[in-house]
Amino acid sequence: MKVNMMKSFSLPKSMGRLRNIPRVAVLCFLLVLIGIAAVPGYLTGKWSWAQLPQVANIKQLRQLPKKGLELPGWKTLEQKTLPIGGHQWSVQAIERDDSKPVLLFLLPQNDRKAQPQVEWMDLNGFEKWRTDSYKKMQFAVEASVLEKQAPASKPTTTPAAEVEARFFRAWTQRETRAVLQWYAWPSGGHPAPSRWFWADQFAQLRRDRVPWVAVCLQIPIEPLGDIEASRPLAESLSKMVQAALMAGPLARASGSP
Amino acid sequence: MQYRSKIPIAIDRYLLDGAIIALLVILYAPLLIHWVDGWLHKNISIEHEYFSHGLIGLPFAAYIVWTQRQQWRQLPDTAHPLGAALLAVGGAFYLSGQSELVNLSFPAVLAGIVLWFKGIPGFKLQSFPLLLVFLATPTAVPYLIAPFSLPLQEFIAGVAGFILILFGMNVTVDQIYLSVGGRLVEVAPYCAGLKMLFTTLYVGIILLYWSGAWVSRKTTIVFLSGAAIISVSANIVRNTLLTFFHGTGQEAAFKWLHDDWGGDVYSACMLGSLVLLLNAIERYYPQNPE
Predict the structure, then answer these.
(1) A255 pLDDT above the threshold of 50
(2) What's the pTM value of the predicted model, to 2 decimals?
């Protein structure tokens, strides 16, 4: 009895029908959602949220550890794959006339589900080195750099990429190296997995993906020397690696939308 | 007169509510089946498994809503604009088709409906079940926090190494690596026990709610901190045992604890200890009369 009185008090009789308006609105709203998104799912049995969109260039990426990366002006002395932290890395020794051999470690995405995780930690465990003097290195790869590199038959439409890498000194009892690490993707690069993650999430809204390659460059320096001395070489090499990746394994396969 | 006009409205109301629930089921049943399938068969991703506590939490949330249905009905109808906003956001997330956003649309739409029908008082009434649903919604949060678990990994590796040295084993600890007898054990981010910590805290808040202890802020804080400490300590013990098994070449024992049902026994002991902890707290820290 009390309940009834309260109800009729808070909602006068004339308002009875109006009371249902919020409910009817929700009903219509849900019907619209079902019509647009759920009915196609039920009819086809395919739900876009159930599976990540495919990575368009996964084949090129999987090829990368087999032959490494060609860099103009640099000669590959040796290239092999090494298991590091449970993944198959491409390890490549490259050389130019005036320098000691530089090591290039590459780990491409090998599956649509693969995400950058703890690659830098895996390398620490593999190298067993001590590190210090952590710095940032920022560089941009111009579209013109790519055009110079890419064969004329393959006009590139890849835009310039802004990259940040971490730059630090690493040493073991035998030698000291200036090290650069970043995750490279077609429009940029950063050492933090979260940067790739957000780029990939936005791409997924267009049912697209952002492929990635973990890059680690190791330049030998004087025992416990200053890494700043090798910054120019480090920067030009990293630009070259990013550009070669963008023109090669990270490039959109021609003909794909 | 009054009665005649009221009965059709009441029937309308039940029909409408029933239709809304049916439409929600049509919208979200495939998604929830997908979640549960991923939790049971571990076939979506490691991040998804972090939310497997939803297997307990989602049915419990539904149970609470059911037991509170009388109170819900008695609340006056007031539409809060935030409800409409949440519904719009939830709808947009659902339409995006992107898995993270579609997942998040579920708690958003539920919270939106609650606020849209019964305003803030309704939201307060349903806040606990909504919290359970929100915390069980799979997102990429574990992926994003994994890089920050490094200090915890180093701490676990350090303490595990120390315990093994106390037992006379020859162990060296380097960052997150323990080497025993020439074998290397890595305390990976997913070994840092964050999943167990999440599950412990989630089951912890269910226990607090169930026992009614959550009305006391002191009990809640002491209990949840205690639960976190138990979870981290238990994980140190687990990692110590794993290192011991691996270092002494007992691969079968290592596999049992790492991948097999040994892990489930460990989790069950952990969660059982929560009940003991809550009993102990209630005995030694009697609740404030307020």
Answers:
(1) no
(2) 0.84
Picking from A124-128, B48-52, B141-145, B191-195, which range would have the lowest pLDDT averaged per residue? B191-195
Report the candidate in A47, A53, A78 with the shortest Cα–Cα distance to residue B27: A47
The complex scores an ipTM of 0.82
8 A C-beta contact, residue A213 and residue A247:
no
CB contact under 8 A, A118 and B147: yes
C-alpha distances in angstroms, B86 versus B81, B100, B104, B108, B127? 9, 16, 11, 6, 15
Q: Tell me, yes or no, if B35 comes closer than 8 A to chain A by beta carbon.
A: no
Q: Per-residue pLDDT for A146 more than 80?
A: no
Distance of alpha carbon A81 from alpha carbon A64, whole angstroms: 10
DSSP string, B166-185: HTT--EEEETTEEEETTEEE
- Residue B271's contacts (CB-CB under 8 Å, 6 or more residues apart) are B199, B200, B203
- List the single residue in B95, B150, B174 with the smallest CB-CB distance to A36: B95
Q: Is B85 in CB contact (< 8 Å) with chain A?
A: no
CA distance B241 to chain A (A): 21
- Say if residues A217 and A180 touch (Cβ distance below 8 Å): yes
- Shortest CA distance from B86: residue in chain A: A26
Calculate how close chain B gets to A137, using CA atoms only, in Å: 21
- Sheet order of strands, B183-186 included: B171-174, B177-180, B183-186
pLDDT at B285 over 90: no
* pLDDT tens figures, A33-42: 999 999 999 9
Q: How many other CB atoms sit within 10 Å of the CB of residue A221? A: 23
Instruction: Give me the mean pLDDT over the B260-287 stretch.
Output: 82
Quote the CA–CA distance of A29 and A35 in Å, as a whole number. 10
Which pLDDT tens digit goes with each residue over B184-219? Answer: 787 877 777 888 888 899 999 999 998 888 888 888
